[in-house]
């Protein structure tokens, strides 16, 4: 490699013309006759033009290949390159961009003449059609190609395909030359984006017509008496006359009558085969029933399908339908018939859910690692603009025929002119859409392959070439690349705000109480738009918007800035209406909180997370009104989701210990619990906290509340009597509290144990402890708007008839004399959670002989447990509950899994100490290590138990109140799915199927292990 600085003398180096590989460039220029030992040989116009091409090395290398092919004809090309700036611009613009067109020119050496200046064949549909028909030697007859009496190609089969392929690629070469010429020679006219995509679309339509003519000829040759009447309807970008250089061409086929169907299907499939081999893939997947449906239908068949079974996205696709080949009259009749259906689609049942599915499907197709570089499907990409325009057309086009254009930019301009989108917003989006489509075209030109992926941001070489091909000029490679990346991000970010610009800002204007020179939708138009975006009560939503933005205060101004983004985000949640109402209530409650709106305005992630929370959960907004400080944590993921449960518990106990008054202490404990409960709920709903950590954190904070209430109650009684406490008290967690597996709506199952201190006797200790416990239950059970703090002591000896507190010896005496097997089973989850830790530990050690009996469980007692479980299954399931989806008592639910483990613990924990754990998940894993369960069986039980727990939590979060049944209402089930972490596009039926599949497998394990069946 040689650079210009290393050369001596005054002879210039090829490096001055932008060549990187100087030695190769000099050799190639010498071969062309444009370089000698003294430098350029009068070839400065050519060299200067090469230096302006997107990739000078590639352009020169392609010319060098061409030089070898042309042979004696090279001199003619070289002379014309010197004399004709138009030829230089078009040829070097293409060769400096596209290796695919270089390959074409090597194979079709004379096609360079198509790039010369002078009279050119017009880039029109008729001209393209004539050129392609001429390539297969078909004489013009005045009839449409592929119809009776249409042009009859002389070439068939492989010969026709080869001829069509070469001519079509030559037509694309002409279009590319026109597209790229101005990049090299600035005096050449720069065609608009619309002119290029229209030419590409016309070339594709001409290709379809020529392919149809060849297909019809082959059909006649195969013995068919007549050519059937077939209309080819272009869809997608071809239908909108906005096709790329490389793209599938979407079509729908229509036959005139039932008698034509068989022959028309053969004709259509032959057309697809010929076009696929010669030009591009023809995709008929947008037909009724998609790929599973008939390739060709009659007009009546199409209409019957669209009227009875079509989804909204199919009418969205029909926005771009355009007859392009075959029977023109049949094509017009098809279009006239389907158009009324398109413009009433927004009135159809299910329109909102279909719209949401369309929106979500776009983003779901993009891998996270490619999202920022995806020109087409990524956020801020082309599909965002196209979808937004089409949705606005569906909503407003039924009453305004000016919006019914199939072309994206033409429709966008009409939306601006009609006042549905602000004019400046429409102009900005037109500009950004053109920019991204231009990048897409330049990327596709390289190898004539489908691609929508912007180069890696650190790939300076690719970025530099793409920048020059797109008309970005700068000094040095890095600066050109930086400019391009900056432009790309600027346009992409502008499009990312398209929903604010296209959908939501007009809604605010429509309810504003002050005049505006911007657009103002009518109330009915605004309601239609909100309904299209998923709001089931659009009039109510408009009232909320009006209340939030009314007046001229600074607060109203900030809300006017925030609401467009918030409405966009809420529209993607399961309950947009509930989310907007909750946002209004929170905003009104925090109206005088100075940092509230400022936080939302300055921290975009807070708005995004808040919208998801409000549109999914009723519990979160109820807590948020009373614990607004948690809002700040939404901007700090570690603080929101990274706090250790023990840390929060220590903080709560320390704060409450400062209060001597029980009421004030209880209020402080409630406040801190509310804060922690809300923090956990937010982290859970946002997918930032694993389920097991949610259970642990909820259990830890409950235990801390119990500890604090016990402590302040003891201190209060001590202060009132003036004596030292005559007893120490321990709180034993039972059930899910004992297993550190609480949910949001769980009660705290506990036992209270006391022990005399000093000279006090048992009776005195029990009286004191009972007074303390009654105080604890009163403090925690006081009415509150928060989730209940219910202390459940029904698992104590003698149940509700027994004393609230017993001494350790009294517990042991009861269990030894009267304890039943189900009580020993309940003790499996006993764990000290508050109070005197030594007493708690001694209690648990003392009951080990009962819950882990030597020799295991007697068979009679095992049968008794099974009998009790069967009775619970049949008697305690609520009336009307579905046992397949009841999380607690249903098949494969919590009780099934927990009783199965507990039976194994009673039977085998005396031999396997690892089974001695109150945790369900830990116990199941220990059963595998002990050889009592297969690993697969244990994992199925763990999966079912975890899912049932998560569903119970999700129901509590969504409804704001506990529930054990998987919801049946679509909106609630959708919200539960969101709380469980399903993607927004999931079918709610899939959620139910997943739950039933997981629990069905667990139930099979329960049948085998617990019931021994």
UniProtKB/TrEMBL annotation:
Reaction catalysis annotation: [glutamine synthetase]-O(4)-(5'-adenylyl)-L-tyrosine + phosphate = [glutamine synthetase]-L-tyrosine + ADP; [glutamine synthetase]-L-tyrosine + ATP = [glutamine synthetase]-O(4)-(5'-adenylyl)-L-tyrosine + diphosphate
GO MF annotation list: [glutamate-ammonia-ligase] adenylyltransferase activity; [glutamine synthetase]-adenylyl-L-tyrosine phosphorylase activity; ATP binding; magnesium ion binding
EC primary class: transferase
Keyword Membrane among record annotations: no
Any one Gene Ontology cellular component term annotated for this protein: cytosol
Region (Adenylyl transferase): 515-1013
Residue span(s) of domain PII-uridylyltransferase/Glutamine-synthetase adenylyltransferase: 357-503, 884-1010
Keyword terms of this UniProt record: ATP-binding, Magnesium, Multifunctional enzyme, Nucleotide-binding, Nucleotidyltransferase, Transferase
EC number(s) stated in the UniProt entry for this protein: 2.7.7.89, 2.7.7.42
Biological process terms in GO annotation: regulation of glutamine family amino acid metabolic process
Domain of life of the organism encoding this protein: Bacteria
Protein name: Bifunctional glutamine synthetase adenylyltransferase/adenylyl-removing enzyme
Cofactor(s) the record lists: Mg(2+)
Family the entry assigns: Belongs to the GlnE family.
Residue ranges annotated for the Glutamate-ammonia ligase adenylyltransferase repeated domain, each copy included: 91-334, 608-844
């Amino acid at each position: 490699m040689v650079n210009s600085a290393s050369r001596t003398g005054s002879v210039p180096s090829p490096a001055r013309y932008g060549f990187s590989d100087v030695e190769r460039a000099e050799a190639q220029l010498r071969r062309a006759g444009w370089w000698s030992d003294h430098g350029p040989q009068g070839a400065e116009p050519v060299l200067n033009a090469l230096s302006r091409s997107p990739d000078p090395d590639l352009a020169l290398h392609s010319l060098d290949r061409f030089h070898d092919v042309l042979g004696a004809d090279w001199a003619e090309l070289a002379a014309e390159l010197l004399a004709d700036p138009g030829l230089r611009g078009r040829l070097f613009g293409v060769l400096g961009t596209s290796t695919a067109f270089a390959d074409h020119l090597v194979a079709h050496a004379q096609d360079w003449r198509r790039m010369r200046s002078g009279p050119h064949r017009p880039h029109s549909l008729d001209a393209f059609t004539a050129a392609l028909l001429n390539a297969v030697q078909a004489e013009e007859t005045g009839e449409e190609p592929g119809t009776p009496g249409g042009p009859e190609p002389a070439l068939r089969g492989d010969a026709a395909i080869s001829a069509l392929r070469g001519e079509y690629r030559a037509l694309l070469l002409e279009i590319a030359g026109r597209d790229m010429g101005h990049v090299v020679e600035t005096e050449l006219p720069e065609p608009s984006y619309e002119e290029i995509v229209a030419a590409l679309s016309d070339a594709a339509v001409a290709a379809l017509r020529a392919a149809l003519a060849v297909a019809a000829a082959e059909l006649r040759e195969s013995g068919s008496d007549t050519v059937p009447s077939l209309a080819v309807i272009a869809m997608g970008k071809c239908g909108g006359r906005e096709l790329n250089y490389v793209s599938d061409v979407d079509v729908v086929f229509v036959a005139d009558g039932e008698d034509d169907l068989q022959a028309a299907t053969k004709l259509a499939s032959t057309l697809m085969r010929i076009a696929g081999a010669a030009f591009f893939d023809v995709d008929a997947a947008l037909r009724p029933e998609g790929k599973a449906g008939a390739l060709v239908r009659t007009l009546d068949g199409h209409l019957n399908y669209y009227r009875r079974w079509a989804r909204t996205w199919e009418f969205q696709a029909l926005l771009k339908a355009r007859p392009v080949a075959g029977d023109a009259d049949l094509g017009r009749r098809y279009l006239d018939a389907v158009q009324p259906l398109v413009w009433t689609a927004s009135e159809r049942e299910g329109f909102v859910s279909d719209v949401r599915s369309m929106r979500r499907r776009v983003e779901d197709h993009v891998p996270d690692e490619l999202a920022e570089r995806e020109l087409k499907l990524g956020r801020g990409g082309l599909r965002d603009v196209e979808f937004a325009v089409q949705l606005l057309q569906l909503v407003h086009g039924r009453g305004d025929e000016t919006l019914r254009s199939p072309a994206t930019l033409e429709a966008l301009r009409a939306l601006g002119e009609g006042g549905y989108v602000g004019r400046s917003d429409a102009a900005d989006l037109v500009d950004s859409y053109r920019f991204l489509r231009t990048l897409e075209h330049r990327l596709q030109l390289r190898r004539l392959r489908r691609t929508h992926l912007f180069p890696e941001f650190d790939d300076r070489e690719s970025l530099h070439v793409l920048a020059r091909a797109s008309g970005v000029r700068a000094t040095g490679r890095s600066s050109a690349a930086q400019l391009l990346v900056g432009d790309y991000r600027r346009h992409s970010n502008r499009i990312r705000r398209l929903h604010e610009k296209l959908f939501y800002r007009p809604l605010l204007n429509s309810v504003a109480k002050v005049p505006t020179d911007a657009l103002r939708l009518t109330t009915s138009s605004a309601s239609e738009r909100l309904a299209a975006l998923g709001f089931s009560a659009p009039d109510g939503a408009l009232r909320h918007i009006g209340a939030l933005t009314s007046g001229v205060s600074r607060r109203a101004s900030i809300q006017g800035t925030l609401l467009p983004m918030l409405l966009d985000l809420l529209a993607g949640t399961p309950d947009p209406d509930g989310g907007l109402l909750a946002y209004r209530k929170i905003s009104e409650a925090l109206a005088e909180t100075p940092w509230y709106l400022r936080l939302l305005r300055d921290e975009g992630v807070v708005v995004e997370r808040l919208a998801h929370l409000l549109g999914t959960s009723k519990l979160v907004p109820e807590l948020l009104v009373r614990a607004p400080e948690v809002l700040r944590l939404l901007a700090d993921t570690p603080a929101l989701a990274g706090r250790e449960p023990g840390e929060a518990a220590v903080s709560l106990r320390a704060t409450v210990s400062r209060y001597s008054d029980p009421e004030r202490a209880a209020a402080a404990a409630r406040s801190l619990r509310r804060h922690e409960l809300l923090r956990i709920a937010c982290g859970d709903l946002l997918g930032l906290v694993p389920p097991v950590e949610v259970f642990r954190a909820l259990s830890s904070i409950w235990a801390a509340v119990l500890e604090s209430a016990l402590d302040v109650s003891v201190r209060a009684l001590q202060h009132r009597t003036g004596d030292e406490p005559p007893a120490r008290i321990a709180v034993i967690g039972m059930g899910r509290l004992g297993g550190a597996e609480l949910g949001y709506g769980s009660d705290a199952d506990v036992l209270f144990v006391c022990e005399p201190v000093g000279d006090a006797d048992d009776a005195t200790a029990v009286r004191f402890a009972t007074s303390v416990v009654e105080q604890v239950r009163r403090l925690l059970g006081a009415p509150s708007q928060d989730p209940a703090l219910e202390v459940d002591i029904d698992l104590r000896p003698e149940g509700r008839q027994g004393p609230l507190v017993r001494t350790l010896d009294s517990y042991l005496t009861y269990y030894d004399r009267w304890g039943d097997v189900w009580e020993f089973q309940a003790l499996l989850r006993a764990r000290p959670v508050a109070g005197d830790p030594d007493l708690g530990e001694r209690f648990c050690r003392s009951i080990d002989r009962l819950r882990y009996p030597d020799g295991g469980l007697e068979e009679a007692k095992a049968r008794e447990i099974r009998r009790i479980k069967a009775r619970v299954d049949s008697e305690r399931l609520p009336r009307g509950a579905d046992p397949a989806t009841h999380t607690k008592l249903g098949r494969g639910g919590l009780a099934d899994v927990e009783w199965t483990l507990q039976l194994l613990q009673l039977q085998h924990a005396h031999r396997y100490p690892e089974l001695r754990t109150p945790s369900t998940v830990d116990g199941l894993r220990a059963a595998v290590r002990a050889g009592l369960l297969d690993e697969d069986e244990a994992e199925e039980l763990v999966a079912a138990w975890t899912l049932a727990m998560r569903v119970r939590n999700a129901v509590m979060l969504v409804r704001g109140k506990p529930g054990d049944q998987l919801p049946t209402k679509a909106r609630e089930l959708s919200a539960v799915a969101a709380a469980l972490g399903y993607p927004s596009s999931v079918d709610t039926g899939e959620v139910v199927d997943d739950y039933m599949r997981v629990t069905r497998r667990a139930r099979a394990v329960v049948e085998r292990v617990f019931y021994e069946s």
